[in-house]
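Example 3.2
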Amino acid sequence: MPERKQHIFNNARKQIEERYPNMPENQIDQAVSYSEYIFQPHIFFIFGLVMSLIISSIIGFILASILKKERNPFE
């Protein structure tokens, strides 16, 4: 599995070099290191958890507005 991840990062580096031929080497290294940091299991888990909370909240607000009971003003 680690060799697969390294292969993905190497391909990402090649794509960056092809798309941005004038980009300095240190910026490419920085972009790849950010990618490696984001794809660590604990960071990936935290990101997934936050996104799940945001999406669940949005769905909850939408459902609450649709299913809201209107109060009878004469009661």
